[in-house]
Specification:
It is a single chain. By secondary structure, the chain is of the alpha/beta class. The protein has two domains: 4-12 and 56-228, Nucleotidyltransferase, domain 5 (2-Layer Sandwich), CATH 3.30.420; 19-53, no CATH class. It has nine helices and seven strands. The longest helix has 25 residues, at 200-224. The chain is globular. The relative contact order is 0.16.
Length: 241
């Protein structure tokens, strides 16, 4: 991935909760506090995948929409670094700490990063998870919400910051005629099973597919919807004049 003054990078993450048994009795009671039925218990356990305090990072895919090159940092104790997509994407295995360290080194090279629902999930998850593991972030992933110049969260853009209904990535891809990453019937619910089965490569490829689909949505947004950011100081001065 080339460094550039106006370069963009898309990133996506895959996470997996620790088993409920990994927490002590007090923590388990707290996590299941409102689960009174078997169905509620199942839902509560699934939600553990969404918190950096109960889950870990399995993979981070980074994809440059300008060069169609990228990297996937992922947990895989059985493989070394290798190439995908005719050498355009490099898969780099490592521990969770190594994944996060590699991510922070790479994200610092780009002026704008692109996510899908990153402001509500990926970005705070990575920052908090890094702090838990004593990995220093290289930048603030939660800058000013209403500017897309540093962080372009496409879910925020396509809903005009909550003014319109939200849809998932699969739905937006189908609406824009983009190949959906869910086309093979796989979803985030399969990640735990694949990890237990040692299918680390499939997790990496699934994460990369999400990043590629997000990159295609970003190109569509750039072409038709991106508008130059207005200098907020100018707006303030005009209102006060």
């Amino acid at each position: 991935m080339m460094r550039g003054k106006a370069s963009n990078v898309v990133f996506d993450i895959e996470t997996l909760a620790y088993p409920l048994e990994a927490f002590d009795e007090q923590q388990q009671s707290y996590l299941l506090k409102f689960a009174h039925t078997d169905e509620e218990r199942t839902e509560a356990i699934l939600r553990l995948n969404l918190s950096p305090f109960t889950a870990r990072v399995l993979a981070i895919a980074m994809y440059n929409p300008d060069s169609s090159q990228g990297k996937v940092f992922y947990q895989n104790p059985t493989s070394g670094p290798h190439q995908l997509d005719d050498g355009r994407v490099e898969c780099i295995p490592g521990s969770e700490e190594e994944i996060l360290t590699n991510f922070w080194e790479a994200i610092a090279l780009f002026s704008r990063y692109v996510t899908f629902n990153g402001r509500s999930f990926d970005c705070p998850f990575l920052m908090l998870r890094s702090s838990i593991l004593n990995v220093a972030p290289s930048r603030n992933l939660l800058p000013y919400r209403y500017s897309s110049s540093e962080h372009c969260d496409l879910l925020e853009q396509f809903t005009f910051h909550g003014a319109c209904r939200k849809f998932n990535l699969d739905f937006y891809c189908k609406a824009f005629g983009i190949l959906s990453p869910k086309r093979n019937g796989m979803s985030g619910l399969d990640i735990g099973r694949l990890f237990l089965e040692g299918e680390y490569q499939r997790i990496a490829e699934y994460c990369l597919d999400d990043a590629k689909a997000t990159a295609e949505l970003f190109r569509r947004w750039q072409e038709f919807l991106e508008a130059p950011d207005v200098d907020r100081r100018t707006v303030t001065m005009r209102r006060g004049s």
